[in-house]
Amino acid sequence: ITGRLLLSSVLAARLNSHKPWIETTYHGIITENDDKVLLDPPLIALDKDAPLRYAESFEVTLTEEGEICGFRIHGQNVPFEAVVLDKSTGEGVIRAKDKMDCELQKEHTFTIQAYDCGEGPDGANMKKSHKATVHIQVNDINEYSPVFKEKTYKATVLEGKKYDSILKVEAVDADCSFQFSQICNYEIVTPDVPFTVDKDGFIKNTEKLNYGKERMYKLTVTAYDCGKNRASEDVLVKISVKPTCKPSWQGFSKRIEYEPGTGSLGLFPSMHLETCDEPITSIRASIELETNHIGKGCDRDTYSEKSLHTLCGASSGTVELLPAPSSSANWTVGLPTDNGHDSDQVFEFNGTQAIKVPEGMVNTNLKEPFTISVWMRHGPGAHEKETILCNSDKREMNRHHYSLYVHNCRLILLLRQDPSEAENYKPAEFHWKLDQACDKEWHHYVLNVEVPSVALFVDGTMFEPFLVTEDYPLHASKIETQLTIGACWQDNSGHDNDTESVSEPTSGGNARMAQFFRGNLAGLMIRSGKLENKKVIDCLYTCKEGLDVQLPEEVAAAFNPSQSSLTVEGDDIDAFDKVMQHISYLNSRQFPTPGIRHLRISTTVKCFNGESCVAVPDVEGYVMVLQPEEPKISLSGIDHFARSAAEFESQEGVTLFPELRIVSTITREVETDPESEVAEGADDDPTVQETVVSEEIMHNLDTCEVTVVGDELDGEHESLELDMSQLQQRGLVMGSSNLGLVITGVNSMANYEQLLHLIRYKNWHTEALFDRKFKLVCSELNGRYVSNDFKVEVNVIHTANPVEHANNAMMQPNFINPVHHASVDLSGHNLVNAHQASVVPSAATIVIVVCVSFLVFMIILGVFRIRAAHQRTMRDQESGKENEMDWDDSALTITVNPMETYEDQHSSEEEEEEEEEESEDGEEEDDITSAESESSEDEEGAEPEDQQGASRQQQLEWDDSTLTY
């Protein structure tokens, strides 16, 4: 029985019927850089299947079912593992897989589970305990030292003042615990300095500082964490001492240089306002760019006002009443001017001078809309009327048909209706009260007149009249009118029917001027039939230089119309400083006027009481616009050639500038590379630091003038001609006289070049003419930049063999096409080719002299030969023997062979330059210009026979004339 009981108990003990048991929560501590975890409570797993160790009544046999085989950790990326120390007792330990880093993770939480060894020898049917939570804290060690956030600290203090805090230094510690990461103390290492630092890093002075004693202090500061680790590197602190504060603008450069063509230039890049720590509520600054001494108030393109109208897209029909004095417009010769080219011509009226506009210049029909525009600078003046423009009766009546005048700082336009109107009141006088009319500054006035309304624009801004008075229309009369500028034409013999005040005569005689103007006028224009639109008006007024700024929302700004004055307002001093630092000067002219532009900044600062508590002195400086790299306009081409008399007398005439080239270059100074200078040679002058480089540029021309050198043109038998349609296509105007012709208007160099190619000289009486000389000059910006004098000499060949010209005429159509292409190619800008072409005439001149001498000798020999053969020649002509006639032609062509030698030379050079195919008769290509090619193409079929017949008729006449010798 006892044996059976013992067996049954052993079998029962071997059955795994219980789960292991562990605590529900464990707390552990691990020190970083270590792998041992101290757990509370200790890790022990219990299993009821385990036999009692100390049974007294019977022998205990150990079985696997009661042993603890392991612990399992649950969680992702848990850096710990659990190890069983004793299977029978269930003791275990948790340890780190790697050394812990508190700075990476301070705490770890995961679950753990114990399991027994199961049943049988293979450990099957093992049982697991419940899951327990484990919290492990990583203890920090003081492995890091404090590090300062900045490499250097800077501050500025005022002398004679003690500060509670000047600046704050701050260090950080990378340790994870509060104790070791906390900065417990700062310390100034530098001895004997009047500063102290507290535990929070605030530095203050211990005594009042003296700017005269020390302007800057340099301190070395260190830091300690609460583990008493010192900073790895001490930090440098710079404290500048300023003298007693005076509110002012700081960082302002008095002289600011502007290089033309560089775009926008910041005027105050480092400027800031020092307010001496006063509590500021608002700041207002006015920046003025003073340019009153430059032209009409600022740097504008110095084209004539008429050219500016063209550039701005104004309609045609503009009449310039105050043009620069010239041979074609001489009525402004007597007026004082500014004698400069910095702007359009400015005329001064001193109260005693006025001018009459020639008849026919202006034909204004008051029924049509018309526009008057003028630049005016006028001071307060007297209390009398001062006339700008006046159209009055030439005699007897003294009626003012229309006039523009200033009276008591008012601008007044008088506009009397035509007599044909109905006899009722109509608006006759329009009054504008304007401060601009008396401020001694330049202003631009445009009046758009469309009866019965008148719109006035002053500097691009529209003004309504404050008073309009009405009057009856004028009475019908046949009296002619006189248009005057600077005064009104009066006549003492009549009466002033318009009840206008008349000044006392300034000189004897009945006819006189009255109501003189005192001030300056420029660009007085009148246009009939169309009004100026706002876009054109703005373009005419727009200044090429001015101030510019990019504004944030918290700062407001306002420009004057010419952008020469800027007002900035704000309440945030930092934002205000940024705005001031972004104010720039801009000059968009290609060749700006050099010189000084004065700058002034006026500032008003207000505090909390709404009054000006801080007085900021005005700041003055100037922008120095440097001298622009001036263009050199070069005219080049063939300056000496000969043509037959028949060509001068032909309908087309002779082209004066067939191969003219207009090229503009600027010379730049470029700094050379010092290394290259040494490499090239040490013998050079060491003072030479720059090299000169020529660069071709493109810009406009506004005048080209062709004048006769020597005797004036005889209108009865010679002329200079140019196709007017070609002028109109390019918007240019031509004036001509017996001295030559002038082409005016703004256009490109290429367009001017094409037009000058088409100028022709005709002379239908060449018997006494051997040569003619002409001079060509082109200019830009109202004469500011002038080209070289390009002179052309044309020789007339009086040939003894007109038949040769007939042959030439027959051959011309064969060479029209290649010559036409050549003329197009020559219109390009190439400095090298231009110089090559200009060298040819010097050799050609020598050839011509030799040819003329040889020609005279051959003519003398030919006279005797012709006299002997005359009878036979007449018989041959009557019987139609053209063979002998051809033989005579070939014999006589020897008289022009010397000239053909010159033509051959020139033609060969032209062929080399253009690298075109060779032509057998290159000398004849030279005689055909591009314009002649065009005319020849139009009449290609009929011209050769006509010219041949005409030439043969000339031959017979010439032979008859020779018989008189």
How would you explain this protein's 3D organization?
- This protein starts with a helix and ends with a helix.
- The chain is built from 17 helices and 56 strands.
- The radius of gyration is 52 Å and the shape is elongated.
- The protein folds into five domains: 25-52 and 63-139, Sandwich (Immunoglobulin-like), CATH 2.60.40.60; 147-242, Cadherins (Immunoglobulin-like); 248-290 and 545-625, Immunoglobulin-like; 305-492 and 510-541, Jelly Rolls; 632-669 and 692-797.
- The strands form 14 sheets. Strands 22, 23, 25, 30, 31, 32 and 37 form a seven-stranded antiparallel β-sheet that branches. Strands 24-34-26-27-28-29-33 form a seven-stranded antiparallel β-sheet, with no helix packed on it.
- Helix 11 (816-825) packs antiparallel against helix 16 and helix 12 packs antiparallel against helix 14 (897-914).
- The longest helix is centred in the last third of the chain and has 49 residues, at 831-879.
- With 965 residues, it is an alpha+beta fold.
Summarize the entry for a quick read.
The protein is an alpha+beta fold and 965 residues long. The protein has five domains: 25-52 and 63-139, Cadherins (Immunoglobulin-like); 147-242, Sandwich (Immunoglobulin-like); 248-290 and 545-625, Immunoglobulin-like (Sandwich), CATH 2.60.40; 305-492 and 510-541, Jelly Rolls; 632-669 and 692-797. Helices cover 21% and strands 34% of the residues.
